[in-house]
């Protein structure tokens, strides 16, 4: 399945090789950092390492050369790139590992970046919902899908978009990494519910063939809609379970708010100070 490049034959191995190189670099870097952190007093959960490698493996499966040009093959790649791989990578807590591995000055810079206004906008639930559901609607109900089939750059940009949005969405809902702008659990549950509804509606429209702007046989479009409906549900159920597993009530934040302190409201800053202590 070639979910990263279509069209010219030379673009298929080039895209696959690029993903292989990036995956090898990311996997090696993560594993080496995780081994170093595991030797510290706080250690490092090897299940997170397994999650990171699983996410990379799913991306590699999505990037392998195409076995067919069917729409169902495209949908499978979309599910892997936009839902399953991001969730596995998010649960591996790469930001936590990064902050524990870099010098304190670099950690402070990362903290400022994540607390910035652009980061707040990019991770706002409404923005992520619009980019997620709106991106799917634009792809399947406008001429964008046909354009992506003719233009390798557009095709790659679309999948980068879905991966980034999928990662940020999974992180916002259930990421174990700290987030200074992450909404409360009730808001996250509402956002997840809206996303599930939006994906279900788009999948049903694909299955029925309504408003679809895809040049493919009706049977292939129905097969793609079926994949999106059922496997999308599985991914969202896993995301909901991850929310339940990773959520912990922060009693310290409430106590700090009563005392008028700021330390508990800055989880990234707290983590930077801890990483500074660990690295000294």
Describe this structure in words.
This protein is mostly helical and 280 residues long. It has one domain. It is 76% helix and 0% strand. The chain has 13 helices and no strands. It has helices at residues 11-38, 46-63, 71-91, 94-101, 104-114, 117-122, 125-141, 144-150, 152-174, 185-208, 218-246, 251-259, 267-279. Helix 2 packs antiparallel against helix 3 and helix 7 (125-141) runs parallel beside helix 10 (185-208). The longest helix has 29 residues, at 218-246. It is globular and about 60 Å long. The model is unreliable at 3-13, 251-266 and 276-280 (pLDDT under 50).
Question: What does this entry show, briefly?
Answer:
This protein is an all-alpha fold and 280 residues long. The protein has helices at residues 11-38, 46-63, 71-91, 94-101, 104-114, 117-122, 125-141, 144-150, 152-174, 185-208, 218-246, 251-259, 267-279. It is 76% helix and 0% strand.
Give the arrangement of secondary structure elements:
Layout: H1 11-38, H2 46-63, H3 71-91, H4 94-101, H5 104-114, H6 117-122, H7 125-141, H8 144-150, H9 152-174, H10 185-208, H11 218-246, H12 251-259, H13 267-279
Helix pairs in contact: 1-2, 1-4, 2-3, 3-9, 3-11, 4-13, 5-13, 7-9, 7-10, 8-9, 10-11
Name a few traits of the molecule.
280 residues; 0% strand; globular
């Amino acid at each position: 399945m070639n979910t990263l490049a279509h069209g010219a034959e030379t673009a298929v191995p080039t895209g696959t090789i690029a993903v292989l190189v990036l995956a090898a670099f990311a996997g090696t870097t993560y594993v080496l950092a995780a081994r170093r952190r595991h030797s510290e007093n706080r250690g490092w959960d090897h299940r997170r390492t397994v999650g990171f490698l699983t996410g990379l493996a799913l991306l590699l499966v999505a990037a392998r050369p195409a076995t067919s040009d069917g729409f169902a093959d495209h949908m499978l790649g979309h599910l892997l790139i936009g839902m399953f791989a991001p969730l596995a990578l998010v649960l591996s807590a790469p930001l936590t590992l990064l902050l524990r591995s870099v010098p304190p000055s670099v950690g402070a810079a990362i903290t400022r970046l994540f607390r910035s206004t652009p980061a707040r906008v990019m991770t706002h639930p409404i923005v992520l919902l619009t980019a997620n559901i709106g991106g799917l609607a634009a792809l399947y109900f406008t001429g964008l899908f046909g354009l992506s089939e003719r233009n390798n750059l557009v095709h790659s940009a679309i999948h980068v978009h879905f991966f980034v949005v999928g990662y940020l969405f999974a992180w916002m809902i259930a990421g174990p990494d700290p987030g200074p702008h992450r909404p409360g659990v009730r808001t996250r549950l509402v956002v997840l519910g809206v996303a599930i509804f939006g994906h279900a509606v788009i999948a049903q429209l694909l299955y029925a063939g309504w408003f679809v702007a895809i040049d493919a046989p009706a049977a292939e479009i129905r097969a793609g809609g079926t994949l999106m409906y059922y496997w999308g549900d599985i991914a969202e159920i896993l995301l909901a379970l991850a929310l339940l597993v990773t959520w912990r009530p922060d009693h310290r934040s409430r106590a700090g708010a009563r005392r008028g302190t700021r330390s508990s409201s800055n989880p990234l800053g707290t983590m930077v100070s801890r990483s500074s202590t660990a690295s000294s």
